[in-house]
Batch of 3 targets.
Target 1
Amino acid sequence: MTHVIPESPCPACAYPMNRADNVHGPAGAPEVGSLTLCLNCGQLLVFDAPSSLRMPTREEISEVMADSKAWEVIEKSQYFIKERGPIRRAR
Ligand SMILES: [Zn+2]
């Protein structure tokens, strides 16, 4: 399910993110601590607040890597995003 979120720039590429999809689990809106990917650059990000995204900590990356199914989804998604190339070039 796609959720409209307050517009927030990707901390890696500044792409303005305003939608988030829940790929598994309950179809709720993203919460503080939810992971997401930037559709422009593929960076793994964490919701700090509904309108604030940040880079994940080493611990958060290790935690999600320990969940092989979740990590597989992330890696495949990042592969497709990087193969497609950015939606919008960095300025
Ligand atoms: Zn990005």
Target 2
Amino acid sequence: MVQSLLKATVFAMLAISLLIQPSLARPEYMKEFKEYPDEIKRCTLCHVQSSGYGGLNPFGRDFAAEGGLTEKLLEMDSDGDGYSNGAELSSGSLPGNPERVDGKEAPGFVLILSAVVLVTVAFVRRS
Ligand SMILES: [Ca+2]
């Protein structure tokens, strides 16, 4: 039983390390947003997930294309939800996620972790 649990733990750690990519968020970019509410100051401002997995969201791609927080970027509606990036930033909304209304993280990390736990439990039961 202990050996099975050890195998399952090693398997789970390997799975997590393969699924999670390092974050590409850079603190120097966040300096451009210092006048905005704290709710938007997170990796998911520009990335699909807080882990950096999934790449840039629509706002992150537009930010990169503009080379920074420009007036044009503030007037754009990167996520297509009908609100300009500037309006969303000022209200504490993430402009790269049309479903986000209060700055909550994307559920990606939780889903990945849940999948790893389920696979680990299945592995232990099979052993
Ligand atoms: Ca928008």
Target 3
Amino acid sequence: MKFLADRMLGRLSSWLRILGYDTISANSFVGMSNAAEDTFMLELSRLEGRTLLTRDAQLHMRANEKYGISTLLVDDGNVLHQLNQVREQYSLVFPEQPEAIRCSICNGALHLASISEVLRSQEIANLRAKGVNCEKFIQKHADYYKCDRCGKIFWKGQHWRNILETTRHHLHCGQVPH
Ligand SMILES: [Zn+2]
């Protein structure tokens, strides 16, 4: 299942990507008026068979009635509630241990990175600038991933452990903190 999410759903887009879903965010569109952007979202959803996720009731209605595309009106500002709404609506089974297959920033595909790619990356340059021993740091994680599109390097560090924790506690059993 593929999604296209409006500008109000940036965090939801990142989460869906982390969970493995191909999700385009309207935040990646530039140089369009609001009206042109709405029309572009509708046409792109239809062309690519994407489900349009939106918090805009009018856009939702237009998608439904004029374009006949699959669309969900997201009714809550809390990203975990939003994820559970999407999960329930489409009977999705979110993976308990998500694989690193999609870039949370840009929706590009991730591939295993070589050590030389990791060493040459901006992320490692940033750590080096902070005085981190990067040769030692790199040995801490078994796998590194590189985004085919934006080039960002990812590894399963603390951020990834937080994601797993959230996935286990709030997305599988449906318990969302208020
Ligand atoms: Zn990327």
